[in-house]
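User: Could you check the structure of this?
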Amino acid sequence: MSDLEFWAFLTVAIPGLFLPVIIVWWKERPVVLIALLSLVFWPGALILALRLQRRPAKLKPKADK
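Assistant: Sure, the predicted C-alpha cells are below.
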C-alpha cells in the first residue's frame, strides 16, 4: 500500500467510524453505546491500516507490483 493509498484509507475510515454516532445523535437517541463501540473498533482499524502500509513486498499480492 503506497503512502497515498494509506492516507486515502484513513481519510475514508475516520469519518466512517464516527458516522453511526452522528446518525444516532441526529435521531436524538442515547449515543453512549454507539460511541463506545466506535471507540472500540477505531484502534483496530488504525492497526490494520498501519499493518497494510508496512507489509513487506514479498507478501503483497502480485497485482500490487
